[in-house]
């Protein structure tokens, strides 16, 4: 009898902890999609250098991984994962390609919003970062082709956003990997023109739909609509009766504010523009213009931008968030920020120790070391001071049934990319802010719901049952943390179509 090959017993879908893939040691399994499985790994021999994300192909010799690596290597953006390495893992079933990227824990966009109560201003900032990632992708000659909430990750400690999972992406000169008319993608996010192409060329033997920036912008609009209303716009699939709104002469989707009156008019205008039935009306197919418009909206002085989008209570339905979810998210965010501060403190102390351990170095080197320490401490203090000066509103959300449909590449909603620089600046926080003297626009006024609301200064507030420093967008009142409770929406008294 021949010797038993232990690799035959190993399934690429679920590698055991401690196993090596090239120079990378598996630390844990994190998710899988249609084409790949995601693992958390560390480099052997460099265990103290931190964790990384390894995406391993399910099928041997999958050509998608080579194309994804080529696309990622061309994109330069602080909001797109940076590729560190690509390689091949030899298995008895064949050679499985893999990609290695930087890692930080994060939440998918919808999961982040499901446990918080963001404002329109916060949403505009998040969407602007996604648009900047798409801008860099398009500038590199590529298209993402699967923009959706599951592929957008939010870092809870500072609301940094990353667009991930380029397994369905394409770029100029790349070969066609499928014989289907439409490229890989999630049906709920497909543009009307993509389905129209399918209808016209259904029987054509060699036709392939050329996805463009307009398709990515439409998907961004679907994601934005879902983010602020907890619902998807009508399906664009031609056989769906509701798809008639997407015809060239159609009215388009129901306005977000008719579903959720807390959505800012400025943000609603941008979302409807992204969802225009005519591709050219989507910011002329220019993601840079869309990003700039979203950034300008985030700086707008319109008071509705600071109204919490969702309603706080025990209802388990769209556009409602429970106090328990808000409290847990606030505690998690506060812990994440504390961990980041502690890590920064360790880095500063490490630099100081290295400087003290080398008394023989030249005066110039000592000066450089001192400058690094002072700069690091100064940036930390300035960042904290800047956060305390800002004043925003709460954070929460709840989930609805996702219409994500098919999975295109690896579902890496736990992978996150850490970059050393932050050109956008850290989002603001309300750590330690006192309760304002007056209610916010749209805030619920007494009589308050006694089960979970407290009347303070002429308005209703929801207690988070935690002590200061309070979490993101929570306020300090007599040693407790509170978030404002928003008014419930009024039922529409007229046809939404007539109010457009």
UniProtKB/TrEMBL annotation:
Domain Protein kinase: 24-294
Protein name, entry field: Protein kinase
Keywords assigned: ATP-binding, Kinase, Nucleotide-binding, Transferase
GO molecular function: ATP binding; protein serine/threonine kinase activity
Species assigned in the record: Stigmatella aurantiaca (strain DW4/3-1)
A Pfam family matched in the record: Pkinase
Gene3D superfamilies (alphabetical): Phosphorylase Kinase, domain 1 (3.30.200.20), Transferase(Phosphotransferase) domain 1 (1.10.510.10)
Record-linked InterPro entries: Kinase-like_dom_sf (IPR011009), Prot_kinase_dom (IPR000719)
Superkingdom of the organism of origin: Bacteria
